[in-house]
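Trying the structure run again after the queue cleared.
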Amino acid sequence: MTATPAAHVAVPGRAKIGDLQGNLLARGLGAMQSNLSQFQRRQFAVLRRVSPFSITGHLVNTTVAALALAGSVPRTQLIIWCIYSYSIALLLLYRHLKNRGRSPRNFQRAAKKVMTYSFFMALPWSSLAVLHLGALSHDQELIIVALTAGMAATGTILLSALPPAAFIYMSAILIPSALKCVALNQKGYFLLGALALSCWGFLAALIAKIARDAGERERTEQSLAEYSVQRALAERAALVGSFAYDTHTNRMEISPGCAAIHGFPEETAEISRGEWLSRLHPEDAARLQVLRSRAFSDRRREYNADYRVLRSGGEVRWIDARSFVEYDNDGYARRVIGVNIDITERKQAEEHRKFLNAELDHRVKNALATVSAVVSHTLEGRSSLGDFAAALEGRIRSMATAHELLSSRRWQGIPLRELVRRELAPYSTSNNTEIDGPEVLLEPQAGQAMATVLHELVINAAKYGALSVPSGQVSVSWSHRPNGRAQSWLCIHWQERGGPSVVQQIQSGYGTSVIREMIPYSLRGTVDLVHAPDGVRCNMGISERWLIGGAKPAIIPPVDATPPFSSEFERPTAPTC
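Done. Tokens:
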């Protein structure tokens, strides 16, 4: 179902869409090439969230250890141990608060810092085991073992977002403790050392598993990010976008391509359906609502629609929407998923094809009518069939010349200089013709009329005038001349010299009538044809609106046939050419 297009729809090319594609390419590839990927950002976000808990646990356990060991170890050692343990925890808390809300610029550098901090955070607990196992009471040693094992386990979990840091932390606690137990060379401590090593092995295996899963997830997310960029680029290049919305909430999720097509900001990912409706052409909005309601009531799984959107600056673009509807168990529409395809260029091509078909039909009718009139008037006054054939062939050849020039330029105008040169070419020698004037492009209708007039002037000059003798010369020139109004005129001068003496004609033939009447009738121009004794002069004037680049006439006179030579019509006023 297609809406009726407006009479004049101005649609842009792909320049703005192309700009959006460039922005997306730079942004997307920049993100993929950045040292800090989205996955790595999330890793550090997790570390930032758990840091307060790990630091708090460290401070609490330090206090517990200090209270448990007070009076059993030298006071100086205990004070030094507490100062170090509290200091490293408070330093990390300070850095955490200072860098809150920031993302590291370099992943490798930030990861090395975290691993370094993990090592120094582990030293207080490994030092407890190394310095005091075997020298304390049974209960106090149990507290030390519980604290070291507990800190190793919890630290591994809290630091699992960055597996190398977790491995360093738990290794720095468990391996020195296990070695100290083995060094004591007592059965109980030996078993405790073996337990510490088995705990280390278990945590190491867990960390390795987390690292593998994290690596696979990172690779998957990287692939998805690249796919998303590729998809977005493909959407922008193909002018295609996707959308989805729940009928109950009417919140639309749109892809970058969909946002670009409808003229929403580049980063837009979600809009309300009301925002989308506000971009629709007024003539299409109600029709689309009716079409959607009808599809829902008929429980159709799919429906298509063409519509126009109004973008900033008055741009109008055609969209082909293909929607797929999901229904709930009660038969009510629940969700709509679809794609939008920008078909502006296709619509332009269809309109252009319609225009070309109509133009072709019009021009064929004109050509047939003109040929019929030319044949009819050429036949008048001809004494022989050969004379008639020669005259008819020349006039049809003139029409073909104009058509050939138009066709070579895709009907975008006729160069006046080339038109004059081709008409004079059959009779031109090295010194019998002169062409002078600025570069001028005539509108197709003006070019066809001017070709007919020039042909008759050339034929008359070749038969009776300057081109009929070796000493004759024809000069054709043109110039722009103001007429005191907004529009200037193009004045074309035909001058014959050196030919036979010209005798004033008593009765005009068909060719002379064409010269005098074609331009005034078809182009509302002026013609002054003078049969002077020293040579024929013909001054022609047409408005510059008949030139490519000039203002177009409000009403274009018909050229369906040759002018009504036997009737009088209103002649325009123009400057003297």
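The longest helix spans residues 187-238. Worth checking whether this holds up in the mutant runs.
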